[in-house]
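Internal QA ticket QA-208
Title: Verify multi-chain structure generation after dependency bump
Assignee: T.L.

Test input:
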Amino acid sequence: MRPAPTATRPSQSAEDYLERIQELMEEKGYARVVDIASSLKVKQASVTSMVQKLAEQGYLNYEKYRGLILTDKGRTVALRIQERHATLSRFFSLLGLDAATQQADIEGIEHHLSPETVTCLADLAEFFEKNPAVLERFGKSRGKARRG
Ligand code: ZN
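Actual output:
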């Protein structure tokens, strides 16, 4: 049986924020409320209230002039989210899906997948990488099926 999610696991939208804050920090060295709002396409007021919640839960520190800093706890979660995104992207790339389709679909499903499913997809990706002939056979059979 799967263990119940612990209380410390962030909500889906909290995961979106942590993922985006980590990305902004990597790109620019800092994450500001205004940048998070524009990249998640939400109002600054929504960002502010989520940021307060995340700060209360110990995921980040908010300093009015320096902006947001992820705590070790926040960074650990953000890196795990990024890793999951990368796994899905690796799998979708093997299937030949283009970057735009991948980005849209991954953002749509990534927060709903259990760690077990993500591990399964990572194993499948690795299997295909180690057995390119199998992947090629899959591609061909798929082509045939579609042609009828
Ligand atoms: Zn993502």
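Spot checks passed. Residues 72-94 form the longest helix (23 residues).
Status: verified.
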